[in-house]
Amino acid sequence: MEEREPPGAEDDRRSGRVVSLDYGRARIGVATSDPTRCLASPHSVIANGPPPTRPPDALLDVILQLRPIEILVGIPLNMDGSRGEMAEEASEFGRAVGQLAEVPVVEWDERLSSLRAERTLRDAGHRRQTQRDRGRTDAVAAAHILQAYLDRSEA
Q: Which of 91, 104, 128, 140 has the fewest CB neighbours in a 10 Å radius?
């Protein structure tokens, strides 16, 4: 007799939050999806201290609170698609987060996400960059990265 999954089991594998990280040496932008993985929203900004060898406890607390099924880490590839110093650093950071949080990590090309985030904020009427706004930009950039991933995953 063929074993079948209960109704909705496939949907369970496709549901659950995804958390996106826009890694930076000073700040980490955090965004989260809704549980159905359709919509990305900026969540928060976490201070990152030098040297960023271990993910900040505040970030791990946020991940624990949100209980994602996956963590998306934006990788700042060069315009030609190659990996530079920051891409390698973000990748290493993502691996550390995944190990500590015990959540699978996916890397995603984040080229120009900060530029798109600044444009989004400007179009929404926010003025030019103050220190506080840079943090807001990081969280919006994380949301742009996550929304691109969610849209691509649906296809």
A: 128
Helix/strand/coil (H/E/C) assignment for every residue in the chain: CCCCCCCCHHHHHHCCCEEEEECCCCEEEEEEECCCCCCEEEEEEEECCCCCCCCCHHHHHHHHHHCCCEEEEEECCCCCCCCCHHHHHHHHHHHHHHHHHCCCEEEEECCCHHHHHHHHHHHCCCCCCCHHHHHHHHHHHHHHHHHHHHHHHHC
Q: Looking at domain 19-154, which CATH architecture does it have? A: 2-Layer Sandwich (3.30)
Q: Closest Cα to residue 135, out of 47, 25, 8, 16? A: 47
Whether the CB-CB separation of 55 and 3 falls below 8 Å is answered with: no
Amino acid letter, 5: E
Contact 71, 101 (CB under 8 A): yes
Is the Cβ–Cβ distance between 21 and 52 less than 8 Å?
no
pLDDT in tens, 27-66: 999 999 999 999 999 999 999 987 666 899 999 999 999 9
State the Cα–Cα distance between residues 111 and 115, nearest whole angstrom: 9
Q: What is the pTM (predicted TM-score) of this model?
A: 0.78
